[in-house]
Each structure stands twice: as structure tokens, then as C-alpha cells.
UniProtKB/TrEMBL annotation:
This is Pyridoxal-phosphate dependent enzyme. The keyword Cytoplasm does not apply. The keyword Isomerase does not apply. It holds the Pfam family PALP. Residues 78-356 form the Tryptophan synthase beta chain-like PALP domain. CDD domains: Thr-synth_1.
Amino acid sequence: MVEFECTWCGKKYPTDTLEYKCDCGGLFRLNYDIPDFSKNLIDTNEWNIFRYRAFMPFEGSSYKSVTLGEGLSPIIAYDENLLMKMDYMMPTLSFKDRGAAALLTHCIDIGVKSIVQDSSGNAGNSVAAYAAKLGIECEIFVPENTSPKKISMIEAHGAKCHVINGNRDYCADECRKYVRESGKYYANHVYNPYFYEGTKTYIYEIYEELAYIPENIFLPLGNGTLFIGSILALEHLLSSNLIDKMPNIIAIQSEKCAPFAKAKSKNLKRIPEISPESTLAEGIAIGKPMRDKEILEYIYKYDIDIVEIPEEEILPARKKLALKGAYVEYTTAGNLAAYEKYKKENDIRGKSIITLCGAGLKSDH
């Protein structure tokens, strides 16, 4: 049986509910029985994230009408110590296609015909693309500093794009206000736990491709979509006795917007109120992440380090990646800048892996 459970009070909800959060204000997680991870359960006939559907809460074959061939991105070496997973090699040029494919599969399974979402660009683009394929009406709210190319891509998929004067957090507030007034389904990548069922395939792929998990995993952390999905998958591999310990996880934030770093420095259970500054790393510039309590619990449970991207190192890092053949957006370049900063300040042993999660053509302002 698959059900939603509130992460705050534990109240259960059926997964076909149109509510996007619990009555108490808490967000949902998914509860369902999941078999131990085994390569024998991977459907190698599927060349998309649904090759791992044995470990996902889907029944039937509705995913076949959804998939755009997302996932299965290659892993290449940056140098002898650092690996890069080329996760911008996706239908809409960002890793968010993993989550969008899973979320839209859920949408068609429960008969949703019209959706609304807020985004800094990439998630909105992904959701708009999959909704277009399925004939689902789609509206996306983005903040005014969103890359014009991301807005153009959203509109190209036939979605209505609302550009909101204000930062990312204000945009999200305005979107949720519109959802409450319109009654439309909030297909949001932060609130809806089905999105994480897609992003957790990032780790499954690493394990399948390498036959091991690198000692150090660097994960960008804004709202936490890749972070939470990766933790879920790593916990699954751990409980399946395929890895003997949690790898060293390093969360990446912008120095201009680092609520989790500030919370951890003071051992807080909730993030403090901050005023985000303008940053090139727009994809993780989230001052009020809605799953802060849940993410902080993971940070303390696994003693996760947090490194802040030096703003002045983003463009040099982008150039370094381009000279390796990888042309990425600014937020993605920040992952390399963060790795280099962390390496200077810490004794890193073994292999490390970063994600190249967004293509450069999407963020040329």
C-alpha cells in the first residue's frame, strides 16, 4: 500500500489527495514497501529512470506514456580524483527531468488535468515539457531574475509562464496563493514527494554504472530535491547491505544564500530567517526551503558538511569545465568551485563525484 505521511505529525493521506500539505502545515513523505536493491530487479529493457521502477511506488505501465528518455547520464573523470555525472544530458537539459517524469506519472495516475508550479527555471521547464507531452494544462511561476532562455523554453512547451517581481521565495508564496484561489493541482518539486522518487535514481545510476559508491558525494542544496532523493537512495543501498556505511556527503550552498550552513553553525533545528543576496547560483538561491526541518535532520544524522560557493569562483569554474568539454550553467559551475574550496580546507580521501546538473545554454544571460 502506498500512502502519504506527514513529516511533522504523522497523519496519513491517500496519494490521490489534491492537498499538497497536511492540515498541520507539514509536508508529505511517501510510505510503501520497497524490496532490497538488486541489479536483478533493474529492467534493462528500459532506457530511462523507470528501469528502477521495482524500487518506485508505481504500478502498471502509465510511465511509458510519460518518459522522454530521461536518466542514464554518463560519468566521466575530471581528473584522477574527481568524477562528474553529466546530468545535464537530459531532455530539457537538467537533472530535474528525473523528478518531473516521476511526478507527472503520478499526475496521470490520479487523473490530474491542470497543474501549477513555481520554479527558478529548470524544474518549471521540466514539468512544462512532460505536461505538454501528456496534454496536461500547465502554468509556471518564476522570479524576475530567471534566465530569459529558461522562460522561453517553458513557453515553447505551451505552458503559461508568470514572471513574478521579486525573489525566488516571494515567487513561491505567490504561486501557492494562486493555487489556493484557483484550486488547481500544485505539482511542485519541493512539496510533492513523488518528485524525489525520480531524483533518487541519480544514486541508483551511479551504483549501477560504477558498481560502487564514491567515498565523497557533493550535492547542491537549495530546496533539496537532489539532496533528499540521494539520501533516500543511499539509505536504501545501506539497508540492502550493498554499501557498509554512508559516504561522506557534502552539501553545497551559495555564500550569498546559505540558510542551512547558518543553521548548522548554531545547531538549530529550523533555518534562521535570512535575506538572500543576488548570486549567479540562482538554482540554489532559496532563502526559505520548505523542507528545512527534514533536511536538517539528515544533516545532523549523517554529520553532513556544508560548503559555501565563493561567488568570484563561479565563472572561473565554468571556464575550467568548458575547457574539459562540459558547458554548464552558473549554478552547476558552482559545484566545481565548492569542491575545490572544500578540497583546500579538508583532507579528502578516495574518489569524489559532483553533478553537472544544468546545461550552459540555459543560463546565458
